[in-house]
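Note to self: keep these together.
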Amino acid sequence: MGNDRSNMRWAVNVISCILFVILGLTGLLNWWVIPRGSSLSSGFWISTRHFVRDVHEWTALLFIICIVVHLLLHVPYIKANLKKQGWIK
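Structure:
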């Protein structure tokens, strides 16, 4: 049982890391490479900017879900530390 939970934590951590990298890359791409109102006003660049923004937003949603799952997998650890610190009984 404990090994399954460890494998799940590892998978969630790896997926979270990948999503975080994608978030960073798409955010920087939208900010530096194809900024809003740039002289690159052709339809291709506008479409690319919207696509990258959509990827960024969906990745953010998946990242938030991964963080919630990560926290749920660590509930026993969090409870144990809160008890040790005297915050809960």
